[in-house]
Amino acid sequence: MTRAPAPGSLALVQRFVNADDPGDARARELREAIRALAAAHNGEPADAGATATLNRAAERAGLRPVLGDDGTLRIEPSAGGLDGELGRVVAAVHMAVADGTWERVKTCERDSCRWLFYDHSKNRSGRWCSMGACGNKEKSARAYRRRQKSPVRPSDANSA
Fold it and tell me: Higher confidence at residue 99 or residue 139?
């Protein structure tokens, strides 16, 4: 992966989504919901079920706002265990929505990848987790498909 990691607490979200299969059904469901919500930033249709999944995880975690002595706002889970840990991930998503950085979180457009990445580009045009890996492969595959669809011109057939 050649992209810089997501900033701040979004790095936790990125590590969670891009990690190996968490095994637990609730963790897997949350991971796929976050991936679906981030895919909407690529222009894919929004998934209302994904939002509901995040909201259920927040409720199970007992997320609550906490004002620090330094005047900063945090969102923390009151639950422990798995619900609390998943709540920390959801809290990071909530804070990113609030500070406007969530819109830069995307999923790689390569179907076999779908990794979460933070789009650091100035114009927010990132499409792949890595141009060197997924970007080049996807561009090559798309070009190949276009060539396969285009009709063979008579002059091309004679020169072959």
Answer: 99
